[in-house]
Amino acid sequence: HTLLTPHRGTLSSRNYPGTYPNHTACRWRLRAPPGTSLLLAFGDVDLEPSEHCAHSSLLLADPDTGTAYGPYCRDAGPAAPLLVTNSSAVTVLFNSTSHRSGRGLLLSYASSQHPGTHYTQEHVRQERAPEPHLAMCFSVYCPAGCKDIDGDIWGNPSQGYRDTSVLCKAAVHAGVIADELGGQVTLSREKGITLYESAFANGLHSKRGSLSEKRLIFHKAHRLSLPACGDALDVAAFNASSSWHEVDALGQDRAWAAERAALGTTGHSWAAEPGSQGAWLELDLGTRRNVTGIITKGSEPYDYYVMSYRVSSSRDGKNWRPYRGSGGQEDKVFEGNADSHGEVSNAFIPPIIARYIR
């Protein structure tokens, strides 16, 4: 996972995020245009700890001035996630001996001439805040397979993530990358909050945690001609393969109709006729929309919920296309709810552009 260009790039140690190999010596030469300086962001430095970083080490060297940064390893990492150098050239040296653990190295860089989305610093004023606080925006490359990395995440896409969360694992939870593919992630590091609520999203459960000084806010890319990601879409009409018409103990009819499927509806929800096979719920969005995800919840008073589901889409309501995700050959099965009260989010990567969703 290495991409080096004159103005920005990303590099990682071999096997990242798996354990890096024994007896490895890697060297990268980062070179920006003359007259500019390099800005480096440490996405992950997880090397097996040892005295003076003897077993595994990361060292950054400026060949022109002789300045060196490091050596770094676990428990002796960089003092800050962003390193601003005064040089247009830096050599990155990564060495390992025999070891048992460690994800290795993930590092991004950009030149001061073209920081782009990689590293920009700006003052952001918040309402009721007497003084502005500093928000640092940066971008890193997350490889595939981050979902199963050891380590915890706190928070959710709407409130942000505690900055001690495993970054790329949080990006999967937030739905900005697919775990099977990885990809570029853009985020900002902003002032922390008091409490990070837990959430289940994209097959990952975040933890409920206390305050931190900083938090991570992920930014989803979207086409300017389409609605911003995160906006709740209005449903013009609901339809279903069948609906359950229950007769309660008092002999009263209770209709579990399709229109009761809207999230936030009080009381009972939609349910298919008991015993029906291949049941489906259909949403008509009124016009063709950009659909970036779905949130499901059970019918809380009755302890009913859907544990897994597939998704199909249509532009005309007649021809349906099953959702398979990025490069998938089989219909994607989404993980649903494990109880009747919690909300579960799943992202569509890539998004679905359609009027009808089943």
Automatic annotation (TrEMBL):
Residues 1-112 form the CUB domain. It is found in: Membrane. Its main location: membrane. GO terms for cellular component: plasma membrane. InterPro entries: CUB_dom, FA58C, Galactose-bd-like_sf, LCCL, LCCL_sf, Neuropilin_MCO_CoagFactor, Sperma_CUB_dom_sf. Gene3D superfamilies: Galactose-binding domain-like, LCCL-like domain, Spermadhesin, CUB domain. Keywords: Disulfide bond, Membrane, Phosphoprotein, Transmembrane, Transmembrane helix. This is DCBD1 protein. The gene is Dcbld1_1.
